Amino acid sequence: MAVSEAISTKWLTQGPLVSKFEDALCRYLANNNRENHLRGAAVSSGSAALFLAFKALEIGNGDEVLVPTYACSSLLNAVHLVGATPIILDISDTDFNPTVDMVSKKITDNTRALVLTHTFGVPTDTMAFKELGIRVIEDCAQSIGAKYRGENVGRLGDIATFSFFATKMITTGHGGMVVSDDTTLVERVRDYCNYDGGKEYYPRFNFQMTDFQAALGLSQLDRLSGFIAKRLSCTGRYESALGEKNSFMRQTAVGPGLANGYRFALKLGSNLANAEKLMLDKGITCIRPIIPEELLHRCLDLSPSDFPCAESVAANTLSFPIFPSLSEDQIIRIVDGLTELKDSIDSK
Ligand SMILES: Cc1ncc(COP(=O)(O)O)c(C=O)c1O
After folding, report:
1. Would you say the CB of residue 176 lies under 6 angstroms from ligand 1?
2. Considering only CA atoms, which of 9, 24, 12, 14 is closest in space to residue 219?
3. 224-346: what fold?
């Protein structure tokens, strides 16, 4: 409805709805505080947002950017496309994010920035990483709505990026956003996104979002708290089915973090293949979200033995269906499957 109304205005490119979406996302991140200093620049994808965040921070040749290995290859691509060198980090097998210790060991004189992904919507303590004295980019592609110490992720780093791809918490089809309270950084992103109309020539590009995408983004943002509530209600029911004894299998936040329910991921180890089959027999497809071959250190031919936790998480983790449009019947089927899984593990 919002999209067809936007199209009926005949404004097909970037226009007033994009600005409205940028402001609305910033207000959301600032817990509805209209006095916030956050600014947003809507872009064409989460990948573009990462690339543009690096550009805005003037990261390039000779600079090192720290990225977790258990992440989408989009991170690696963005680092390479600005000509910087990716330095790959292992992760903790509790929250699937790097630890401060892992990061501090890799900092050199050439380190310019760290990317944190708040993996699968499980937030990490951005401020603890900022204390290391490096720039922090929060890649919130999966984690919008997750909180750490009551603050939304995407507020505490130097700059944050978002993806609105179809499988994310909210969608505009393809799309993304760069957000920061540093106006200079956001203006650099805006400038780079539009190759037309500059007073002096230097290479820029077209990474813009359209108004009808922004119309969808605005209506999705209105529904975000409902989406999160549904995901967290499913999380609670899945956890109850597993029982406390099996809670060690869950990916969980470390410290005062509140996940957004983007995934329900279990580290199943030797039970993984059985679990996959048990669920499939009930008509429930689970996925292995990142398999070992996709780990970023493997893309760079680095030794798997230097990334033991990520290797183990990638080989042993299964993600169970969790999304806002799950019907009650589907949820009950998943809960039954998890109960059976728990019984089969407990009886061993
Ligand atoms: C953590 C992370 N960053 C970046 C991206 C890239 O986003 P997009 O697909 O919108 O380019 C993704 C997409 O899956 C992602 O999960």
Report:
1. yes
2. 24
3. Aspartate Aminotransferase, domain 1 (3.90.1150)
Q: What is the pLDDT of residue 346?
A: 87
Q: What integer pLDDT is reported at residue 197 of this predicted model? A: 78
Establish whether residue 296 lines the binding site of ligand 1, counting it when its CB lies within 6 angstroms of any ligand atom: no
The 10s digit of each residue's pLDDT in 175-209 is 999 999 999 999 999 999 999 877 899 999 999 99
The pTM for the full model equals 0.96
Distances in Å between the alpha carbon of 65 and those of 45, 51, 78, 136? 20, 12, 10, 10
Domain spanning 2-220 has what CATH number?
3.40.640.10
- Let me know: does 115 contact 75? Beta carbons within 8 Å: yes
CA of 139 relative to ligand 1 center, distance in Å: 8
**Mutate which of 44, 47, 144 to test ligand 1's pocket (most atoms within 8 Å of Cβ)?**
47
Query: Looking at ligand 1, which atom is closest to the CA of residue 174?
Result: 10
Q: Where are the domains of the chain?
A: 2-220, 224-346
Residue nearest to atom 7 of ligand 1 (CA): 46
Task: Find out whether 98 and 90 touch, Cβ atoms under 8 Å.
Answer: yes
